[in-house]
Specification:
This protein has about 190 residues and is of the alpha/beta class. Helices cover about 45% and strands about 10% of the residues. The chain has seven helices and five strands. Strand 3, helix 6 and strand 4 form a beta-alpha-beta unit. Helix 2 runs parallel beside helix 7 and helix 4 crosses helix 5.
Length: about 190
């Protein structure tokens, strides 16, 4: 079993090398994808002020309120593309097609499934591995099919869906805090 610290370290390394984090899941896990992106793409607990030279290049007062962000992308939000893939290819491939389009070696995919068996998430992880991307998963206690598809797997200690989701929130808040501290230090708290 992998730790939250290991997850934070591999995601931090991905961002440091210029990679991006893609995320996918279904239902409540899709909502978690958006939540994680919200913690990474702007300040979470720290302010993350823009560097002075960038502020000077923008040259407008409102820019002082912007925050440094990390390239994290929620694949569950691409409604028109998901509809097109579902209609033209196969609904279970809606995330795999996006990973194929957006993913590159050095990037990372985070798949979330309370059972670990969501077919569309497993397909996305399969494509990510074929592209040379690192794979991270969050599941319930059993790990499901995702256990064999993830370089790092965070398992909740239960199997009941809502309990797994509650543990997932705690897990991803913990690794988002660690990533922010590693990349931005202890800047002024929000």
């Amino acid at each position: 079993m992998h730790s939250i610290e290991q997850a934070a370290q591999v995601i931090t390394a991905c961002f440091r090398r210029g990679g991006k984090l893609l995320l996918c899941g279904n239902g409540g896990s899709a909502a978690d994808c958006g939540h994680i992106v919200g913690e990474l793409a702007k300040g979470f607990r720290s302010r993350r002020p823009l560097p002075g030279p960038l502020l000077a290049r923008i040259g407008l007062a409102w820019a002082a309120h912007l925050q440094q962000g990390l390239p994290a992308f929620d694949l569950t939000c691409q409604g028109p593309l998901i509809a097109a893939v579902t209609n033209d290819i196969d609904g279970q491939s809606c995330y795999a097609q996006q990973v194929l389009a957006y993913g590159r070696p050095g990037d990372m995919l985070l798949g979330i499934s309370t059972s670990g068996n969501a077919e569309n998430v497993c397909r996305a992880l399969t494509v990510a591995r074929a592209l040379g991307m690192e794979t991270l998963g969050m599941t319930g206690a059993n790990g499901g099919r995702m256990a064999s598809l993830c370089d790092i797997l965070l398992r909740a200690g239960c199997t009941e869906t809502y309990r797994v989701q509650e543990e997932h929130i705690r897990m991803y808040h913990a690794f988002c805090l660690q990533i922010e501290a590693a990349l931005f230090g202890d800047s002024e708290a929000l």
